[in-house]
Amino acid sequence: MKSFVLAAGLATLLGSAAFAQTATTTAPAATTTAPAGAMATGAASSDVIVVLPQATQGAAPTMFLSDDLDGKDIYGANNEKIGEIEDFILNADGSVGAVVVEVGGFLGVGEKDVLVNWSALQIAMDGDELRVNAPGLTRDVLTNAQGVDLDQIVPGHD
């Protein structure tokens, strides 16, 4: 009886090993064609990965995160606060289409959004802080500019 149980156990083990082999060898082969628009297999990672240089201590920034500018005050031609960066509108190619500047109002009432060209702004260091200057703009120019409804410009904006 012992040899029958031992033989049955051995047959079960060998059968499951054979089944596992069969299962892995009959699996469909993975596709090697990339879908249209996807990076082809074997493309160099340098085509998609960006490595940026480190910032130089004490130098004016050449790069910054958009989050660092969100909510920053903008100072105009006469060094007065003329608005605040609310957001950025990006074009499909990744370039900055416009800067959304919040102007006017008091304590959140009566404010409006105005679109300003990115090239009108200058980013500088004021001690250890980023400062946003718009030497060609004044509070009057922004206050009198046409306001925009971002929901009408950017679909799905919330």
Describe the protein's architecture and organization:
The protein has 158 residues and is an alpha+beta fold. 24% of the residues lie in helices and 23% in strands. The protein contains four helices and six strands; from the N terminus they run H-H-E-E-E-E-E-E-H-H. The chain has a six-stranded mixed sheet. The N and C termini lie far apart (75 Å).
Give the SSE layout.
Layout: H1 2-25, H2 66-69, E1 73-75, E2 81-90, E3 96-103, E4 112-116, E5 122-126, E6 129-133, H3 139-144, H4 150-153
Parallel strand pairs: 1-6
Antiparallel strand pairs: 1-2, 2-3, 3-4, 5-6
In a few lines, what is going on in this structure?
The protein is an alpha+beta fold and 158 residues long. Helices cover 24% and strands 23% of the residues.
